[in-house]
Specification:
Layout lengths: L5 E5 L5 E8 L1 H4 L2 H6 L7 E10 L1 H14 L2 E3 L3 H13 L12 H39 L6 H11 L4 H23 L8 H39 L2 H7 L4 H39 L4 H11 L2 H27 L6 H31 L4
Parallel strand pairs: 2-3, 3-4
Antiparallel strand pairs: 1-2
Length: about 375
Amino acid sequence: MSAPADFLHDAANGGTLRFRGNLSLRCIGDLPERLAALDGAVTAIDLAEVERVDTVGAWLVHRFARDRGATVSGLTGDSRHLFDQVAAADQPIEAPARPLGAVAELLAEIGEAVIQAFRTLYGLLGFMGATALAFARVASNPRRFRFNATVHRFEVVGVSALGIIGLMSFLIGIVIAQQGAVQLRQFGAEVFTINLVGRITLRELGILMTAIMVAGRSGSAFAAQLGTMKLTEEIDAMRTIGVNPMEALVLPRVFAAVMMLPLLGFYASLIAMIGGGLLCWIALDIPPITFVQRIREVVPMTDLWVGLVKAPVFGAIIAIAGCYQGMQVESDAEQVGMRTTTAVVQAIFLVIVLDAFFAVFFTEIGWN
């Protein structure tokens, strides 16, 4: 059985402290108290006679040597390695920051959110520039254009979305007509419900609600698809074999969204007007032929052009936001969900902001 830990202070030989025995937790005993009570200078610690040492013993010796400014010698092999590891782990711990007050914490969160918003905007603008450069390369060499991938995205973004967009638009048309009729009935002007349904669906709600649906449906899919490919290093593999991810993955999705959104927006507006016309027929006794004739009279062609002009811009924003967030995925699968959520929120926010700018712009040029 190993001897319990002990030491001998050789004050005459330059203050050398010689340890012997077993410097492990079960054999240390009152050694820490005896070391703390030791008087006299200690310039060197000799561990040559130590039979065994564990982490606790190594830490005890290291702490004593650090406090006394002494050098440690006599260890070899695994014991030396253990002592070096304990010494390397002896690092100061940063004290936790004092908690901020409620007002200061609120201001800090607002500031951090503003900084993050500007960073995201900067990154999104840079990604738009990269998309434009990829488009220029493809335009200069049309053989680089991936036709099959783009057609497949047409089906995903456009054809597969007809059902949900049609149902949503039909119900929105009914709601607009019903609410408008209730309010206009107070003035005996129920016939102007047709004006309300025709203009608001063709000019604003048709394309806006379609863009929101596409952002939630296709924009999230773009982010999740590219995020998963980034996580599984498929995008890095594409770069390795000489395939440009912007041309192979981003451009087909952007093309599909830009070209499909005007068609989906026009389709949604027609379905919404059908829903509004159905309610006018049932609730207001306005026959469909009268509804259609009134629509042709009160809805100017500029309303159609307004929707068709906004649609490609909304489609580009949705696709670029989704692809950008997908390309930002790193490290783990949790980022895929986070970036997908961010892509949807970002796309819807940008669509609404741009819609407000378009409303002001078209009013200024007289398209109202």
